[in-house]
Design a protein that fits this description.
InterPro entries: Gfo/Idh/MocA-like_OxRdtase_C, Gfo/Idh/MocA-like_OxRdtase_N, Gfo/Idh/MocA_Oxidoreductases, NAD(P)-bd_dom_sf. The chain is α/β, with parallel strands linked by helices. It is built from 15 helices and 16 strands.
Length: 462
């Protein structure tokens, strides 16, 4: 039996068969590209779901780009965005009528309901109020994580969603990435026996940390959300989703160790543009990142005709936080954070969020009674203790190949597709990340932050 036929028979793409020792032996020491089937609950959509986007920044454009690519599925009919150039670009991309363009989210709700759904991609601190108003007015909602900055607000959104019966999909997009879908499927099938523990790593990558959590929008936890929620509620959620047991206890440690004033090098200045003596050798030089390498320039909101003009970029470095010295910001987010969790059936998990890496992309190790899994979102290697054989699985979602570059291993657009179907059919069962499913990992995040600050082991209650 050739391997292609064997894989087809086994239903690796359909989750039909447990990978027993004989099967593992037949597939051993080979690389398998697996496919995930289309969601069997999907139906033909006769007219696109209409949506209004609140917040036309990076995440708003991720879902907006899905609509631009698949206008038969999702039609963006309105936008609220206070930054004029973002508002203009978004409106032009989606051909939004002037009457449906707003400078604040509040103005959207001054109008009677004029779309099927609201996409909330505002800053973290502006999730709760528009979400509650949208629910009151009968909109279904695609809600960027974190749900809200406090546990009380998260629970209030959940309560109102249940009361109104509206769909609230939380953008826990890793649940839709083929890599994690396959990992969960194989664990449930017993591919490594009984699960004992998980180790999970999120390497933020040092320049991403400097950009977003030292200089950027999330540098101050009090004005946004703690980094465990702002960055890593994805990870707490995927650990919980894979284990599929309730979380019982959590403890955490971490701090802001490096990006502090006392670590500023001799000769450094308030801004990288102020004649800093060490700017050329500093790994966090704003001039090197934004001016020399042209990285992450979207945050500057430059007109199209200015993006190629060095002086426009340099002016932003002289006037915005993105040009400030990383050692002299008013940041407070931890740059290393470890969390230990005990789940039901005494399954344990450890999670580490690390800023100081040269690479990004989640890494996961799953330890089971009959084998283990090691993965990095590109491939998943299973070792069977009974045969000492290894099988390498590589995700390949041919039916949604165009989704693969959308972000988070294809999860961003795969979520968007399921959301459109859920709204069109008015069936939340098409989603794996409704607020009912996603809130527990948020509670875990709030309890982790409480543990980190108080040096206590926290109980998790729902």
């Amino acid at each position: 039996m050739n391997r292609r036929h064997l894989i087809k028979q086994l239903g690796l793409g359909l989750g039909a068969t447990v990978l027993g020792p004989k099967v593992m032996a037949q597939l051993a020491n080979d690389t398998i590209e697996y496919e995930l089937p289309r969601n069997p609950l999907h139906k033909r959509i006769d007219k696109p779901v209409t949506a209004i986007t609140l917040g036309a920044g990076n995440r708003g454009n991720v879902y907006g780009n899905f609509a631009a690519k698949f206008p038969n599925l999702l039609d963006i009919v309105g936008v609220a965005e206070p930054v004029a150039i973002r508002n203009e670009r978004y409106a032009a991309k989606h051909q939004i009528d002037d009457k449906n363009r707003f400078d604040t989210w509040e103005r959207v709700f001054e109008r009677p309901k004029f779309a099927d759904a609201i996409i909330i991609t505002t800053p973290d601190a502006l999730h709760y109020a528009p979400c509650m108003k949208a629910l009151e007015m009968g909109y279904d909602i695609l809600l960027e994580k974190p749900i809200a900055p406090t546990e009380k607000e998260c629970r209030s959104i959940l309560a109102l969603a249940k009361k109104t019966g509206r769909i609230v999909a939380v953008c826990h997009v890793l649940r839709y990435a083929p890599y994690f879908v396959k990992m969960k499927e194989l664990i449930a099938q017993g591919a490594v026996g009984d699960i004992i523990s998980i180790q999970h790593l999120e390497p933020i990558e040092h320049l991403h940390m400097a950009h977003s959590y030292v200089r950027g929008n999330w540098h101050n936890s009090k004005k946004t959300t703690p980094i465990i929620l702002a960055k890593s509620c994805h990870d707490l959620d995927i650990i919980k989703w894979i284990i599929n047991k309730p979380a019982r206890q959590i403890s955490a440690m971490g701090d802001l160790k490096w990006f502090r004033k006392e670590n500023a090098p001799t000769g450094s200045t308030a801004r990288c543009t102020d004649g800093c003596a060490v700017e050329r050798t500093c790994p966090y030089s704003a001039i090197r990142s934004y001016y020399d390498k042209r990285l992450r320039l979207s945050v500057f909101d430059l007109p199209d005709d200015k993006t190629k003009h060095p002086e426009a970029i340099m002016e932003k470095l002289k006037t915005t936080d993105y040009g400030r010295c990383v050692y002299r910001m008013d940041n407070d987010q931890p740059d290393h954070y470890i969390t230990n969790i005990r789940f039901g059936d005494n399954i344990t998990a450890s999670f580490s969020m690390e800023a100081f890496t040269s690479y990004a992309g989640r890494r996961t190790r799953v330890m089971g009674s009959m084998g283990d899994m090691v993965g990095d979102m590109n491939e998943l290697v299973i070792t069977d203790f009974r045969t000492d054989k290894q099988t390498k699985l590589v995700p390949k979602a041919e039916d949604v190949e165009e989704y693969r570059n959308s972000g988070h291993g294809g999860g961003d657009w795969l979520l968007a597709h399921d959301f459109v179907q859920a709204v069109s059919q008015q069936n939340p069962k098409l989603l794996t990340s409704t607020i009912d499913e996603s809130i527990e990992s948020h509670i875990m995040g709030f309890m982790a932050e409480e543990s980190r600050k108080t040096n206590k082991v926290m109980a998790i209650t729902m």
